[in-house]
């Protein structure tokens, strides 16, 4: 590494520390989320004292460590019984935005007649489910806010079956750590079991009173108002339960895994 590169790394390190100090200056703000930010900042500062940020690899290692700390703190702060806010029909965002890693014209077309939901992993009832069987499950609706990591949000109306009830119905091991999803658009995601069992986590088949259109995830998506948008997989074709960390499409590219909203 030349002198110029060392100066840049030093400046980057100084910038990280400066940002951290600005956060810790707010210690009088009595918010649970701010408490989490404080803890992350203090954790980052403590790691910096033992790190030498001399190259891209060491910077990436540090950022990964902070990200994992973020996941642990969010998991610790998560209240499995606390409900996200709900809204009225008049507050629904119309049209509800489309968001994916491809254009709306590239949303997968899934044949509902031949569709089968696969269950795997730590599940005793590993049979395939047809759409009529899924549609016959106990129904619930919610009008909740979708929050995107890109900074926008929208309110939508979702209908489907409570995911906790479905997991118990199929004999999922609810003491396991993770529930994972594989999707028809090659997306994949995973969540913690506490979020899977949250009363507002919904296996959604409908949007705004109609069957879920392709652009919103037909034939089903997972709707979690307690998570950021990228944690809500669409076009689900397989659900699995595991104790082995499964990662996720964006998580494996550097996003936080817990992804709490």
Structure, explained:
- This protein is 30% helix and 20% strand.
- It folds into 2 domains: 3-77, no CATH class; 89-253, Alpha-Beta Complex (Sulfite Oxidase, Chain A, domain 2), CATH 3.90.420.
- β4 (178-183) and β5 (188-192) form a beta hairpin.
- It has 261 residues and is of the alpha+beta class.
- The strands form 2 sheets. Strands 2, 3, 6, 7 and 8 form a 5-stranded antiparallel beta sheet that branches.
- The two termini are 40 Å apart.
Quick recap:
30% of the residues lie in helices and 20% in strands. With 261 residues, the chain is an alpha+beta fold. Strands 2, 3, 6, 7 and 8 form a five-stranded antiparallel sheet that branches. A four-stranded mixed sheet has the order 1-9-4-5.
CATH homologous superfamily heading of the largest domain: Oxidoreductase, molybdopterin-binding domain
Mean pLDDT: 81
What Rg, in angstroms, do the CA atoms define?
Answer: 21 Å
Total separate domains: 2
Assign the CATH architecture of the largest domain.
Alpha-Beta Complex
Biggest sheet, open or closed, and with what strands and sense?
5 strands, antiparallel
Approximate helicity band: 25-40%
Structural class: alpha+beta
Q: Can you tell me the CATH class of the largest domain?
A: Alpha Beta
> What's the N-to-C terminus distance?
40 Å
What is the CATH topology classification name of the largest domain?
Sulfite Oxidase, Chain A, domain 2
- Element order: H for helix, E for strand: HHHEHEEHEEHEEEE
Question: Could you give the count of β-strands?
Answer: 9
- Beta-strand percentage range: 15-25%
Shape: globular
Tally of individual helices: 6
């Amino acid at each position: 590494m030349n002198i110029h590169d060392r100066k840049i790394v030093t400046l980057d390190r100084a910038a990280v520390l400066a940002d951290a100090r600005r956060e810790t200056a707010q210690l009088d703000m009595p918010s649970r989320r701010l408490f989490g930010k404080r803890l992350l900042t203090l954790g980052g500062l403590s790691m910096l004292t033992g790190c030498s940020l001399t190259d891209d690899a060491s910077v990436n290692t540090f950022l990964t460590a902070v990200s994992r700390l973020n996941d642990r703190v969010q998991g610790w702060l998560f209240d499995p019984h606390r409900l996200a806010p709900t809204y009225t029909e008049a507050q629904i965002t119309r049209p509800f935005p489309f968001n994916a890693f491809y254009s709306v014209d590239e949303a997968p077309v899934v044949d509902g007649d031949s569709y089968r939901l696969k269950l795997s992993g730590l599940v005793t009832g590993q049979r395939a489910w047809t759409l009529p069987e899924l549609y016959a499950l106990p129904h619930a609706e919610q009008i909740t806010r979708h929050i995107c990591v890109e900074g926008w949000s929208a309110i939508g109306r979702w209908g489907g079956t409570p995911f906790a009830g479905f997991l118990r119905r199929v004999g999922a091991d609810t003491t396991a750590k993770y529930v994972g999803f594989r999707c028809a658009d090659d997306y994949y995601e995973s969540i913690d079991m506490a979020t899977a069992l949250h009363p507002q986590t919904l296996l959604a088949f409908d949007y705004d009173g109609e069957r879920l259109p392709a652009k919103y995830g037909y034939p089903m998506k997972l709707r979690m108002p307690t998570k950021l948008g990228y944690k809500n997989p669409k076009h689900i074709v397989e659900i699995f339960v595991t104790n082995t960390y499964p990662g996720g499409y964006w998580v494996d590219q550097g996003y936080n895994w817990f992804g709490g909203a």
